[in-house]
Amino acid sequence: MIFNSLLIANRGEIACRIIKTAKEMGIRSIAVYVDADKDALFVKQADESIRLSDGGYLDPKQIINAAKRTDAQAIHPGYGFLSENATFARKVKKEGIIWVGPSPHVISVMGDKLKAKILAEKANVPTLPMTSKPNEAKSIGYPLLIKAAAGGGGKGMRIVAKEKDLKESILSAQREAKNGFNDDRIFIERYVEKSRHIEIQILGDSHGNVVHLGERECSIQRNHQKLIEEAPSPALTKSEREFIGNLASAAAKKMKYENLGTIEFLYENKNFYFIEMNTRLQVEHPITEAITGLDIVREQIMISAGKPMSFKQNKITFSGHAIECRINAEDSKTFIPSPGKVMQFHLPGGLGVRVDSGLYSGYEIPPYYDSLIAKLIVHGETRELCILRLRQAIKEMVIEPISSTLNLHKKILETKDMADANYDIKW
After folding, report:
1. Cα gap 108→402, rounded to integer Å
2. Fewer CB in 10 Å around end: N or C, the chain?
3. What is the pLDDT of residues 52-89, one digit of tens each?
């Protein structure tokens, strides 16, 4: 039996996205919100809404209490906030509430980059040479990349080109990691200068079934944050695609992975190297939905309810190409956040066009959260058609008078490198 009520422990466009699937499944949706979001679209769309006080979306106790008050049978954490917080997941399950996501143990292990790399090696996933001992760094060879074990978003990350810079770079990375994650552990690995960022979407259920839903190309980035994603990757051959998909599935099966996850790789000279695993729904999941025709959130819910997946790997079909642009409330040149009132909001339309957003005309974007305000996704028979379709959709999309990164995406899509898929993570 599927549960009949779901609390979404998140906000903005992803809360709207999850509410949509819940409603389609006949599940009562419950939103939590802070005062800054009292007029947000996700609050209006939910069947019931509960106000949070100080601590807001990062307060496990308040969110669990809200679930109890509303008789929510399950909690979906979305992405960001508490989505990869193993302690929160354990507390949810301890209260007898269904957690829509992987187990707390898996979240804990995979959230630690050092432990995740060790587990990946045990699962026969290729990794870059690494060490947690600075005196062994020379044996790896320069340039090196220092990473925070508990890191994310580029924090606690340093590139070291020469041995004389190693000590100070380690101390700097440790300080940033301590401030950002309250954990100053670091490790050192070989730095790959010219690579692409390829990730594999996997799904596993409690009945031992594991599948992959193809790859996504996420190499167009700014400061380690993705800007544009596409599926499938224009860089991979058919045999490479099959190899990395099957490898990711086998690794997830060996981990006895349940629910949704993403295994991320660097791709260089026909080689794949494990980066990390995200134990949650990804921002860029719509492009996978576009090429597979699957509602990934629905699959998450079904798996969390103990149901076996309704399909095997050989029943998954991949159709056409999809590209997603992350639209942020930022100045296109300075990238300074630009919160404020949206007076005009017009969505593009047409075949193969999708927009995930929490905006509406008259909505005041608060200054307290991530600046992502919309995701523009297009799907088409070919990559060339996708780019043309995306260019037209950007022309039609209106978000005024605030500044947004729409113009940045327009410029990227007009480059020859984008047309030729000639880019890497340093592009």
Report:
1. 39
2. N
3. 998 899 999 999 999 999 999 999 999 999 999 999 99
CB atoms within 10 A of CB 22: 26
Active site residues: 280
Which residues neighbour 290 within 8 Å (Cβ) at sequence distance 6 or greater? 231, 320, 322, 352, 354, 377, 379
Distance CA(32)–CA(18), nearest Å, equals: 13
For tokens 């991979």, the residue is 236
Do 214 and 238 form a contact (C-beta atoms < 8 A)?
no
Q: How far apart (Å, rounded) are the C-alpha atoms in residues 273 and 276? A: 10
* Burial group, residue 155, by CB count within 10 angstroms (0-12, 13-18, 19+): middle
pLDDT of res. 153: 65
Total length of the chain: 427
Is residue 389 helix, strand or coil?
A: helix
Burial class, 90, CB count within 10 angstroms (exposed 0-12 / middle 13-18 / buried 19+): middle
H helix and E strand count, the chain: 14, 21
Within 8 A by CB and 6+ apart from 119, the residues are 109, 110, 255
Percent of the chain surpassing pLDDT 70: 99
Give 313: exposed, middle or buried? Use CB within 10 Å, 0-12, 13-18, 19+: middle
Nearest residue to 315 via CA among 212, 204, 206: 212
Tell if the pTM clears 0.90, that is, is over it: yes
Contacts of residue 98, Cβ cutoff 8 Å, sequence gap at least 6: 3, 73, 74, 75, 92, 304, 305
Nearest to 249 by CA among 303, 314, 296: 314
Which strand ranges, in their side-by-side order, compose the sheet holding 5-8?
A: 48-51, 28-33, 5-8, 74-76, 98-99
- State the Cα–Cα distance between residues 235 and 92, nearest whole angstrom: 41
pLDDT value at residue 195 = 95
For residue 240, the one-letter residue type is: E
Closest CA to 204 of 98, 308, 86, 76: 308
Q: What is the DSSP string of 192-233?
A: -SS-EEEEEEEEE-TTS-EEEEEEEEEEEEETTEEEEEEES-
**Residue 263, φ and ψ in degrees, nearest 5:** -100, 125
